[in-house]
Amino acid sequence: MTKQFGDVTAVNDISFSVYQGELFGFLGPNGAGKTTTINILIGLARPGAGSIRLGGLDCSRNPKAAQHLIGVVPDESNLYPELTGFDNLCFCAALYGIGKQERRTRARELLETFGLAEAADRRFAGYSKGMKRKLTIAAGIIHRPQVLFLDEPTTGIDVASARQIRQLIADLHRTGTTIFLTTHYIEEAERLCDRIAFIVSGHIVRVDTVGNLLQPVQGRHRLMMTTTNAGADLHESLVSAFPQFIFEPVADGQMRVTSVAPIRVGPLVRFLEDQGVEVVEARRLQPSLEEVFVQVTGIEALAMMQNNRDKGRSA
Amino acid sequence: MKQWIAFWNILLKDMRAYYLKPPNISWGLIFPIAWTGMFFIRSGRGLDSILELLPGVVTISVLFGTTSMLAVTVTFEKKSRSFERLLLAPIPLELLMFAKTGGAILFGVTNAFVPIILAAFLADLSSVDWLVVFPTIVLLAFASTFLGLFIAVSVSEVFEAQTFSNFVRFPMIFLCGLFFPVSDLPMFLRPLSYLFPVTYGVDILHGAVRQENTLPLGLDFLIIAAFCVALFAMSLKNIHRKWIV
Ligand SMILES: Nc1ncnc2c1ncn2[C@@H]1O[C@H](COP(=O)(O)OP(=O)(O)OP(=O)(O)O)[C@@H](O)[C@H]1O
Ligand SMILES: [Mg+2]
């Protein structure tokens, strides 16, 4: 599908399938078109061109066709500030035609699961950011949807709450819910998702399983060394002494060593100490999706994402 | 059945959150009383004039009770994005909008009875044809609610909805034959009066209270009903066009 807003092409001829029971990640920087994609899929926006099928139902013409199957957790909490947490959940359940008794039981159950039981009778307006996000997720799953859309569920949330939310997402995935998750946290996508699509400037540049994505970096061995007293010509002498390794200075006193064969640390450290360089730390680097992302999308996209992440942290 | 649970809870939530709040209740009472008092004093003809004023005051109560609510229940909720939740609910848009307007319609009908009850203490209402008055009040409540809805979905800010509805309401009060007959208006303004649904409601009420209608009642009813359908349909179209971008 394709979607334009005036001159801006928010989503440019993208095409993908998400399988039943799968946790599918949509990974991309700000403005990549993640929210636009979700809005089209759930029927809050019309695609400029293209077709959509959800749960076997054709939603291209009638965006309401599959709305009984889906749950949505938007990027910003949009519950009613004047209602309590409990009433918000009951109201959301009622929208899906759930009867009174079941609504109440289910709402209590979810408040318990999300650690919000204490705050059940407080107004939503008074909730903290993390509590709001949790209640918004609870509201998205209260009717036990088959397909759940999560738009950046951990953005702007502290580390502990984010971890809790990831755990809840993993649990939902285990119980068979199909999940479409957008994020700009690479580690989050890597840890949670079965398959990931990289989306940059409205284009999907790559879709694959996490395993396949990691394949090209899988065979490599990498080491991060932190040193002090390194001279200017150190790099050159290392290259001539260890031609089988690639040495990349990363930051002041930090160097990344890459090799196709396992790296033996002993000779490397001994060589450095003979040169009068002190090795503070030598750490093995696990192959990560970040490398793949950079390879596929270019360093600018990564920089954009890390920029957001830092903003998210300080916020 | 499932859709009715949704319908009923949307309506109930609006009632609890907006309509049954003390400021609204008192506003709903004070406004009609103030209008009644004002026109009563202005007419300066004592209690005899009550029957003359009643249709106008009833209509204004309905008009103001309904139109102003939609800026909150629709425009504000759209702005704060909670409306998206409703758009995602598996119910047809028509049913959703009936639920969102139902509260305003009930509120408008209730408001209409404030001046009627007051008038009942002050004047002899035995000549009034209630069988015509009640359906007219209901129809007026529908028409003015849907007018409010049309305004509410045509703008994106709450203050715009309020400004725009005053822009329509105040000329309407003077042009729709509330306090002086349409036939007393300057010739060039008369066609304008017939553009307002309220004009036809007022005509029926004048007929029912004092047998002084200018158009056949059946035609009046038909025209208001047509306004209701048209305004509702146009509002839905606007939601489709502007909110599902
Ligand atoms: N309603 C709209 N009107 C105009 N432009 C829009 C609209 N919605 C999105 N866009 C544009 O489409 C592009 C994609 O936006 P989108 O919100 O989908 O990005 P995103 O990947 O969700 O980003 P973020 O991480 O910031 O949430 C952006 O350039 C944005 O400015
Ligand atoms: Mg977004």
Could you describe the 3D structure shown?
The complex is a heterodimer of chains A (315) and B (245). Chain A has two domains: 3-214, Rossmann fold; 219-286, Alpha-Beta Plaits (2-Layer Sandwich), CATH 3.30.70. Chain A contains eleven helices and 14 strands. Chain A has helices at residues 34-42, 85-95, 100-113, 129-141, 159-174, 186-192, 210-218, 234-241, 265-274, 289-297, 299-314, and strands at 3-5, 8-11, 23-27, 53-54, 57-58, 70-73, 147-151, 178-183, 195-200, 203-209, 221-228, 246-251, 254-259, 278-285. In chain A, helix 2 (85-95) packs across helix 3 and helix 2 packs parallel to helix 4 (129-141). The two termini of chain A are 34 Å apart. Chain B has one domain. Chain B has helices spanning 2-19, 22-43, 50-79, 82-88, 93-122, 130-154, 158-175, 190-193, 197-210, 217-243. In chain B, helix 6 packs antiparallel against helix 9 (197-210). Chain B is globular and about 55 Å long. The two termini of chain B are 30 Å apart. The relative contact order of chain B is 0.14. The A-B interface holds A 5, 42-46, 63-64, 67-68, 70, 72, 74, 76, 78-83, 91-92, 94-99, 139 and B 1-3, 5-6, 8-10, 13, 17, 80-82, 84-93, 244-245. Magnesium ion (MG) binds next to helix 1 of chain A.
Give a nutshell description of this structure.
The complex is a heterodimer of chains A (315) and B (245). Chain A is an alpha/beta fold and 315 residues long.
Task: Tag the structure with descriptive keywords.
heterodimer; A: 315 residues; alpha/beta; Rossmann fold; Alpha-Beta Plaits; 2 domains; six-stranded mixed sheet; four-stranded antiparallel sheet; 11 helices; 14 strands; 39% helix; 23% strand; B: 245 residues; mainly alpha; globular; binds adenosine-5'-triphosphate; binds magnesium ion
